[in-house]
């Protein structure tokens, strides 16, 4: 079964719509689609869907990273895997499957942790799509793309899909320009905990009864046996205790599955939620690469729990975000023979696309774009002192340079590094 994806993509690209850029042409869209190199992070429930969608949308070059191996319990929703694949690399099996089904796609698997690769690896991609199930990996990738933007002025968009039960979200993040994953972090609800007094004396929910059995009753009854959620006998005992507690207080809804969910803190993965969110991620990637339509600004929520709710929201960057906020950028000069004027024009103005930058150092200005300075022709290293940095042994400017320009909302902070 070989699929030719050109027909459906051709339709999507055929003409400009009311919101398309004036300069858009179908040829442009097709060229960019053929040229884009996409990285998919995660080949699990969401990742399988994302890989399939991207390949069927005519993306030609895809890389996929996942450090996990296939488990039997994945097979109900991670549809690129078969029973004989259990124990093998998710990235490798998913890539092999896609290659068999979709004509013309070059797909490269990496059975690795994301941390195994350096900045140069990530810089080869046009766009990154994340289908991850944890916050740590998202934060790491987010910091990587923000660092790339800050150090190389290369902007690799990050499209992040997330699902939890019947709910999901998609974020489109352009590093340093729109809110980054770290900016969104404050929206993530803290893990639910229940006050002990509620568990001990005033349970109202089935969860309270289960947590009571888990935290209070079990250690009393079995002081020498640690509860093991993977032991079916333990789970049955826990369920019976919780059920009794619920009966005592007239609470309904304690089931064995619920008990397991609460003690393991599991939210079930739902295949259809993954499909909806992966499709939206792929749409955003397709629009960004081809420019055929504007992108989502910049987060979309999906809730299929009670009816269907879909909403999008424009979320703003946090000024003091520890990752993309106004922290100093590094500017590397490779020779000490650079004058202040050269530095201002060739390094600062060009690299940060400024109009008329003024540069301040330690309270005074060292460069004024309009008026010029007597120091313009002096070497930068003579005007600002450098000192050795204990981290990398290189010479760094002792204080930050502050750059002001009419194109900037906030002053730009720079640290000059001499390599
Ligand atoms: Zn941020």
Provide a short characterization of the protein structure.
This protein is of the alpha/beta class and 419 residues long. The chain has 14 helices and 15 strands. The strands form 2 sheets. An 8-stranded mixed beta sheet has the order 3-2-1-4-5-6-7-8, sandwiched between helices.
Any overview of this molecule?
The protein is α/β, with parallel strands linked by helices and 419 residues long. It has three domains: 229 residues, Rossmann fold, CATH 3.40.50; 69 residues, Arc Repressor Mutant, subunit A, CATH 1.10.10.520; 90 residues, Structural Genomics Hypothetical 15.5 Kd Protein In mrcA-pckA Intergenic Region, Chain A (Roll). Helices cover 37% and strands 18% of the residues. It has 14 helices and 15 strands. It has an eight-stranded mixed β-sheet, with helices on both faces. Strands 9, 10, 11, 12, 13, 14 and 15 form a seven-stranded mixed β-sheet that branches. Helix 3 packs across helix 12. The protein is globular and about 85 Å long. The mean pLDDT is 90. The site of zinc ion has 9 residues, from helix 7. InterPro entries: ThiF/MoeB/HesA, ThiF_NAD_FAD-bd, Ub_act_enz_dom_a_sf, Ubiquitin-activating_enz, UBQ-activ_enz_E1_Cys_AS. It catalyses: ATP + [NEDD8 protein] + [E1 NEDD8-activating enzyme]-L-cysteine = AMP + diphosphate + [E1 NEDD8-activating enzyme]-S-[NEDD8 protein]-yl-L-cysteine. One of its GO terms (molecular function) is ATP binding. Belongs to the ubiquitin-activating E1 family. UBA3 subfamily.
């Amino acid at each position: 079964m070989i699929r030719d994806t050109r027909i459906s993509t051709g339709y999507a690209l055929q003409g400009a719509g009311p919101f398309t850029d004036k300069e858009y042409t179908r040829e442009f869209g097709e060229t960019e689609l053929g040229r884009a190199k996409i990285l998919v992070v995660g080949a699990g429930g969401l990742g399988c869907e994302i890989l399939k969608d991207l390949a069927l949308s005519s993306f030609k070059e895809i890389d996929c990273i996942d450090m996990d191996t296939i488990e039997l319990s994945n097979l109900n929703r991670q549809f690129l895997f078969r029973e004989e694949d259990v124990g093998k690399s998710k990235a490798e099996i998913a890539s092999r499957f896609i290659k068999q089904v979709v004509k013309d796609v070059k797909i490269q698997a990496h059975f690795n942790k994301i941390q195994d690769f350096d900045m140069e690896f990530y810089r080869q991609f046009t766009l990154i799509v994340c289908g991850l199930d944890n916050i740590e990996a998202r934060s790491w990738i987010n910091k990587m793309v923000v660092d790339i933007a800050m150090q190389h002025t290369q902007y690799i968009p990050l499209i992040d899909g997330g699902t939890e039960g019947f709910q999901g979200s998609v974020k489109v993040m352009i590093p340093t320009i729109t809110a980054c994953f770290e900016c969104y972090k404050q929206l993530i609800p803290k893990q639910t905990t229940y006050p002990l007094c509620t568990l001990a004396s005033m349970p109202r929910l089935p969860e309270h009864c289960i947590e009571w059995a888990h935290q209070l009753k079990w250690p009393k009854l079995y002081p020498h046996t640690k509860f093991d959620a993977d032991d079916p006998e333990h789970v049955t005992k826990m369920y019976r205790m919780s059920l009794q507690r619920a009966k005592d207080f007239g609470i309904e809804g304690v089931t064995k599955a619920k008990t397991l969910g609460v003690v393991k803190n599991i939210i079930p993965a739902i295949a259809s939620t993954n499909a909806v969110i992966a499709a939206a991620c792929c749409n955003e990637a397709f629009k960004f690469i081809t420019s055929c339509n504007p992108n989502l600004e910049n987060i979309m929520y999906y809730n299929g729990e009670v009816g269907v709710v879909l909403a999008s929201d424009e979320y703003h960057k946090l000024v003091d975000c520890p990752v993309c906020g106004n922290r100093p950028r590094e500017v590397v000069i490779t020779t000490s023979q650079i004058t202040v004027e050269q530095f201002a024009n060739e390094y600062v103005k060009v690299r940060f696309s400024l109009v008329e930058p003024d540069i301040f150092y330690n309270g005074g200005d060292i460069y004024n774009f309009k008026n010029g300075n007597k120091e313009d022709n002096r070497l930068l290293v003579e005007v600002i002192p450098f000192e050795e940095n204990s981290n990398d042994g290189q010479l760094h400017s002792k204080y930050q340079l502050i750059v002001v320009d009419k194109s900037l909302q906030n002053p730009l902070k720079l640290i000059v590094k001499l390599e």
